[in-house]
Design goal:
By secondary structure, this protein is an alpha/beta fold. The chain has one domain: TIM Barrel, CATH 3.20.20.70. It has 14 helices and eight strands. An eight-stranded parallel barrel has the order 1-2-3-4-5-6-7-8, surrounded by eight helices.
Length: 310
């Protein structure tokens, strides 16, 4: 049995892609998208009809067109998977609670008008304090949230206490920061700072019985993935899915809810603590801000591309 098939026995595998052919090839349960993936996919001629339909729907309003583009890709992905698709709220709303809630409801309305149950949609929100508060309200209304751009335990705790459905800690981006900050070429897989961060969050959640599930994301190599075998979910890019599919070595379960360190202490995270603890973590502060900027750049690129098509 290849490593991908072994991994699927202990972890829900999610495709991190907006490309339908890749999703077909690896049979994931769920799929995630983000502005960068959708922008890349929108450049491919086989997906032009999804943009054309969104332009017709939006009637000249770029905001409505953009929402429909994201939903159109989501609708096509849902035809290929048994589970859920994650669709991102505009990154420019990352510090706007009301704006995030309104955008999430509009995306859900578009899915529901196409006959899709909201249970099959995860609304992606940045793990800012405002994103957490938006998720808290949306979850009360039966709109399930995927908290993205998450780089630290305080962010994870706030999301769990808000009863977000799922969090997406970014393993590879944490590694990137530490390699640059410490001027090192690499880390051993078990010492990888991104792996250690997700392991810490996993242990905390299981110790205190949080229902929010963890989906490791943004991997740089296969070894990071294997070190997190047993995590609730892992969202994996097509290139790494292919590497796992071609590899035959054993996959050992590394994260196990029955094996939690006894010494973990509960941390109180209100707004003041969240902002202070996030500020104290230079990596998480840098990567959260950078992630919002980069998603925004790709949104603006996508808007410009749509304007040309119009």
């Amino acid at each position: 049995m290849n490593q991908l098939d072994q991994l699927k026995k202990m972890t829900t595998v999610v495709a991190d892609s907006g490309d339908f052919e890749s999703i077909k090839a690896y049979s994931p349960t769920d799929a995630t998208t983000n502005p960068s993936l959708i922008y890349a996919a929108s450049q491919q001629p086989q997906y032009k009809h999804l943009l054309d339909e969104a332009i017709r729907y939006g009637k000249g309003k770029i905001e409505n067109i953009l929402d429909k583009v994201f939903v159109n890709f989501g609708l096509e992905i849902l035809k290929l998977i048994p589970g859920r698709v994650s669709t991102e709220v505009d990154a420019r709303l990352s510090f706007d609670i009301d704006g995030s809630i309104s955008k999430a409801k509009h995306l859900i309305q578009l899915y529901e008008s196409a006959g899709i149950d909201r249970k099959r949609i995860l609304i992606k929100l940045a793990s800012t304090w405002e994103g957490v508060m938006a998720a808290k309200q949306l979850e009360k209304e039966g709109i399930h949230c995927n908290m993205t751009l998450l780089f630290s335990l305080p962010q994870a705790i706030a999301c769990a206490e808000a009863k977000a459905t799922l969090i997406s800690p970014f393993v590879g981006r944490i590694l990137d920061w530490y390699k640059k900050a410490n001027n090192v070429a690499s880390y051993a897989p078990e010492q990888d700072p991104g792996v250690k961060s997700v392991t810490e969050i996993y242990h905390y959640y299981k110790k205190f019985g949080f229902k929010t599930v963890i989906m490791g994301a943004s991997f740089r190599n296969k070894e990071e993935i294997l070190e997190l075998a047993g995590c609730d979910l892992l969202t994996i890019a097509p290139s790494l899915l292919e590497e796992l599919k071609k590899s035959q070595g054993p996959v050992d379960r590394k994260l196990d809810p029955t094996k939690i360190p006894a010494e973990i202490k509960k941390i109180a995270v209100d707004e003041k603590a969240f902002r202070y603890l996030l500020n104290e973590n230079a990596m998480a502060t840098d990567k959260l801000a950078e992630g919002i900027r980069n998603f925004t750049k790709d949104l603006i690129k996508l808007e410009a591309y749509i304007q040309k098509m119009m």
